Amino acid sequence: MKTSVNFKSINALAIPATIAGIAEPLLSITDTAIVGNIPVDGLESLAAAGIVGSFLSMLIWILGQTRSAISAIISQYLGAGRLEEVKTLPAQSIYLNIALSILVLLSTIFVIQEIFELLNAKGKILQYCISYYSIRVWGFPLTLFVFAVMGIFRGLQNTYWPMVIAITGAVLNVIFDFAFVYGIEGFIPAMYLDGAAYASLLAQAIMAIMAFYLLWTKTDISLKLKLPMHPELGRLIIMSLNLFVRAIALNTALILAVREATALGDKYIGAHTIAINLWLFSAFFIDGYGAAGNIMGGRLLGEKNYDELWLLVKKITKYGLLVSVVIMALATIFYKPLGSLFSNESLVLSAFYGIFYIIILGLPVNTIAFVLDGVFKGLGEMKYLRNTLLVATFLGFVPMLFLGKYLNWGLTGIWLSFTVWMFIRGAALVWKFRNKFKPLLQNP
């Protein structure tokens, strides 16, 4: 029997999704690498970029969840052959997203110092955090708009245009970083850390313009707000709220890790910044197969094709694990050079090398969690994803983090906590998928 779930169809979605997915962490990695080598206050700038980057990632992940919700709904309607029925929903979801992002922007811009003091930033690092965030935060609504448009394209089984947007943004960000951070003699003054913030903001603005243009010219989706509200908007909001809570739990872990690393001292937050950027880069790299599972899984659920859905999950998990093995091999070979890309401070590098092996060994566990996470989003299982993250964070990550602190394990304790966190997430998703969908197979 011929199947639509094959190597070619999966990778046609997964490879562009992987390239698009790594754009955001690549943007942060670029900032980290360039900022870490600033000739004036490089260590303090690196620490500030890490703290602000973690906080901004938290905000983006929390409010960017409508991308997954709109992608799931569109792909399910596409699979059921009822796409015309949801033509007005994307515009309504985008306007909702932008309104929320502006509300968050305005609610944080006046309490920046208090926010970063809670994250243990002090002295010069605190001042750099305030300056860096004051610029980068204005790109927040732009990023959420781009995320929403990418979700629409994904629901339509198209990852090519999101890839084009992401590549353009990443390349421009690198160019702008070098120009604004170090300056161009006689043309642009060196702005150091503030220059990195302006580079990111400009790249985000260009990505938003591209997203608007491509949605307008490459799809039949209109951005004109039409009333009445679509009946599926309620389901989209509920799905998004479940993902909001999930993202808060997820970012509780990330922020607690930053806070504990900051409390250890400047060299440790610098090392943690390098580690978390590499961890996120590998996560988004592997998550390309999660995106394929999201996109194809929603469509197959709409078709009620459970045999193909089961086959899809088996194949994307296998492909994801193969990718993780390749990343493990490369990370092991380039163990030392990877660290030196981000900093020339021997103390920072020593702390980083002491925990990098934990990240490498945890990649297969991460793969299972990320791949199934994408599948569950496509299936609309947002409530279960929420509950899984709450359990993994508050019964796994947090107890392990404070055990490590009590035993004075330093950064090692923080990264062992991430390993426990990911194991619980992956195991819970494997258990749920097998129990829910194996009984529905016609050919088990």
Automatic annotation (TrEMBL):
Entry-linked Pfam families: MatE
InterPro entries: DinF-like, MATE_fam, MATE_MdtK, MdtK-like
Record GO cellular component, one term: plasma membrane
Record GO terms (molecular function): antiporter activity; xenobiotic transmembrane transporter activity
Membrane spanning stretches: 12-34, 46-64, 94-113, 133-153, 160-184, 196-216, 236-257, 269-295, 316-335, 347-372, 384-403, 409-431
Bilayer disposition of the protein: Multi-pass membrane protein
Superkingdom of source: Bacteria
GO biological process: monoatomic ion transport
Swiss-Prot/TrEMBL keywords: Antiport, Cell membrane, Ion transport, Membrane, Transmembrane, Transmembrane helix, Transport
Subcellular location, record wording: Cell membrane
Family that this chain belongs to: Belongs to the multi antimicrobial extrusion (MATE) (TC 2.A.66.1) family.
Protein name: Multidrug-efflux transporter
Species name: Maribacter stanieri
Record lineage: Bacteria, Pseudomonadati, Bacteroidota, Flavobacteriia, Flavobacteriales
